[in-house]
Amino acid sequence: MTGKIIGLGSYLPDKILTNDDLAGIVETSDEWITERTGIKQRHISDHNTERPSQMVVKAALEAVADAGIDPKDIDLIVSASTTSDVLFPTLSTTIHKALDVSEDCGCFDVNSACPGWVAAFNTAQSFIESGNAKLVLVAGAECTSNYVDWEDRGSCILFGDGAGCAVLQACEGKKNEFLMRSSGKRSGCLFCENARQPYRKDEEGFEGLTHFNMNGREVFKFAVTEVPAIIKDLAARYNFSLDEIDYFILHQANARIIEATAKKLKMPIERFPMNIQYTGNTSSASIPMLLKEMKSDGRLVRGQKLIIASFGAGLTWDANYIIY
Ligand code: UT7
Fold first, then answer.
1. Assigned fold of 178-323
2. Quick one: which of 89, 199, 244, 280 could link to 42 by a disulfide (CB 3.0–4.6 Å)?
């Protein structure tokens, strides 16, 4: 038993922030950002109408329409977000309410930073394989723009906002094969501390802002080492050849990371689709948004073999082998 992806949806905010726009905020240039990251622009959400709890509903409605299902039949919703506008209730219950899903549906969120959607996907697959769910909505939504440090040119140029969702349906087939890895001791190279809300606002030490911190070089080294390694290990563990793979769907963090991974795996770069040029790094939303785009433009077709791989804060990283 496996969960087949039968529907995909995504949402990108209307407002576009180009590299030239960024050059008016921090000391940078379109040339530098393009060369070092491949990013030309990113979308920034409107605080009133495009919060994660609003974007995720738009993506979920599109995924449900694409799947052609009645939302009442969904029996589990798992959402991922690290930059949600609500601490609770969860994004999953926000979707549950907006789509008027039955009360027999379980809802919870997972937090695993950029790999969050893949963690949610693997959780959903485990529910399906164990017979505990048949129709699952897996969502990722991020408003990174609320959390990045807009004075730090080494990080703010990377991120963008958006949401993506997939509907998984239980059916006969090869089970979801994956590896997940973590290195908590390397957590210091990418973290975001939450704002303190003290009993008294004039208390000493009150900052009132989140604190985003990234050592870009370290994260880059980690990604170009661990992502190719976990993909090779996945192929060895589940006995398939990388030559069979139609697409390597990698977390869209930096085009150079994706290019380096293709090179290390000795695979043609054409098999590594990218939309980072116009989305930037949308954290947990990046993979479902890319899948949706590939389905819409006809690149993604039934029966294709895919590797999905993500990485990010934790540090955590993963790779999945699925037949679409
Ligand atoms: O989802 C996971 C999230 N995080 C990541 O994926 C981050 C992975 N890391 C990266 O993508 C890259 O490390 C960055 C794009 C963040 C930085 O690129 P880099 O090639 O590693 O540059 P660097 O940090 O080594 O900096 C090189 C130079 C420095 O100047 P000096 O010391 O050589 O004079 C930086 O100060 O580039 C400078 N620099 C910039 N210059 C213009 C750093 N950021 C900028 C900028 N514009 N935005």
1. Peroxisomal Thiolase; Chain A, domain 1 (3.40.47)
2. 280
